[in-house]
Structures are given as structure tokens and as C-alpha cells.
Write a structure and sequence with these properties.
heterodimer, A: mainly beta, seven-stranded mixed sheet, four-stranded antiparallel sheet, 11 strands, 0% helix, B: mainly beta, Immunoglobulin-like, six-stranded mixed sheet, 12 strands
Chain lengths: 115, 115
């Protein structure tokens, strides 16, 4: 069990550019979640996958955001035409469905700065 | 609707003194509750979780929390603070919504430990 990993850890981009983040979950976990955390706040849910199926998207996830999990393993989160308001920490978590609490384990996050 | 309120945005203690981080929750049913810790530039680490078993829950690094239904509280305590405990702490409730568990985070409490 190597834990949840995310890449890159930091990304600085100019407004209007596209960015893509990657998340590798704990290997046996079938659920994968994306959260966004802004300064001074707790994480907020964005979307989640069960295996390769994207089952829910938050209202926070605008049309410029897209997430995929093509083979039910790693996931990518893409933000198109970035805006300064997209600056945040993007966190990925994974869990194993079937447990009574669906405990989520988090990665270190990708910090995005949009100039 | 489920929610959590962390009553203090900052708590400052001296090394070796007790720690108390306060959390109140709102839930229409018996909730699952968690405490996560976030060190600077690191991901969220699960400290402990309550899942309707024992009301006193022991976690890692000497932390524990007590579930009090009558007070709708889930305060986090530690008998003796260590410098390495300085971090952001999040109280979290797990809510079953739209066929999956969603984590609802509090706004966080920053723990400062003075030498």
C-alpha cells in the first residue's frame, strides 16, 4: 500500500491555459474522489468515480472542468481556459466500496496557481 | 442536512499541555464522524473515526475523540501537545447522499504549539 499519489504537486499557469492533474489511488480501491480546497477552507467535493464510471459531479464543477478514469485505475482532472478563481489545492481521495463508512484516504494534493 | 461546525479557527497551546479542538455536528441520523489532520504542504491524514461503536475513539499520535449524542459534539483531545502536532485539523461528517458517502468538512482549526 503506497497510498494515494498526485502529480504534479505544484502547477503555475497563466490565465486561459489548460492544465491537467493526475491521481493514482490506492491499488485495490474502486472509488476515487476529487476535491477542491481554497485557502482557509475545508475541502469541497467535486466529483467521484466508481471504477471507470463518473457517478456524480458537484455544481462546483463548471463546464471547463472534466475528469476521467478510463481504466478504473488512475484519474485525470483537466481544467480548460483557467481563471484566477481556479487557484486552489486539488485533492484526490480513494476508498473501497462495501466498507460501512467508505473511509477516504487522501493524496498530497496539487496546488494550482493561476496568474 | 448534515454539517459540522468547528468552534475555533485557531487554538494555541504550550508544548506539554492538553489540547482540545471543538466540533459540533448536525445530522438527521446517527452519523459517521472523522477527524483529519493536514500538515503544511501535505495531504489530509485520517486521525480517527467514529462509526457508532464505542463513543470514545482512540486515534493515532495520542489523539482521541468522544461522541456525545446529547450535545451533538465530537471534540478532539490530546493529553499533552507536541511541537509536531502543529497543523490544521478538520472535523468531518460522512453523509449518505445520492448513492454514496460524501464527506462534509468543517472549516478547520489551526493548532499552534508554543515551545
Amino acid at each position: 500500500d503506497t497510498g494515494v499519489s498526485q502529480d504534479p504537486r505544484h502547477k503555475i499557469t497563466k490565465r486561459g491555459q489548460n492544465v491537467t492533474f493526475r491521481c493514482d489511488p490506492i491499488s485495490e480501491h474502486n472509488r476515487l474522489y476529487w476535491y477542491r480546497q481554497t485557502l482557509g477552507q475545508g475541502p469541497e467535493f467535486l466529483t467521484y468515480f466508481q471504477n471507470e464510471a463518473q457517478l456524480e459531479k458537484s455544481r462546483l464543477l463548471s463546464d471547463r472542468f472534466s475528469a476521467e478514469r478510463p481504466k478504473g485505475s488512475f484519474s485525470t482532472l483537466e481544467i480548460q481556459r483557467t481563471e484566477q478563481g481556479d487557484s486552489a489545492m486539488y485533492l484526490c481521495a480513494s476508498s473501497l466500496v462495501g466498507s460501512s463508512t467508505d473511509t477516504q484516504y487522501f493524496g498530497p494534493g496539487t496546488r494550482l496557481t493561476v496568474l | 442536512a448534515q454539517s459540522v461546525t468547528q468552534l475555533d479557527s485557531h487554538v494555541s497551546v504550550s508544548e506539554g499541555t492538553p489540547v482540545l479542538l471543538r466540533c459540533n455536528y448536525s445530522s438527521s441520523y446517527s452519523p459517521s464522524l472523522f477527524w483529519y489532520v493536514q500538515h503544511p504542504n501535505k495531504g489530509l491524514q485520517l486521525l480517527l473515526k467514529y462509526t457508532s461503536a464505542a463513543t470514545l475513539v482512540k486515534g493515532i499520535n495520542g489523539f482521541e475523540a468522544e461522541f456525545k449524542k446529547s450535545e451533538t459534539s465530537f471534540h478532539l483531545t490530546k493529553p499533552s501537545a507536541h511541537m509536531s502536532d502543529a497543523a490544521e485539523y478538520f472535523c468531518v461528517v460522512s453523509a449518505w447522499m445520492d448513492s454514496s458517502y460524501k464527506l462534509i468538512f468543517g472549516s478547520g482549526t489551526r493548532l499552534l504549539v508554543r515551545p
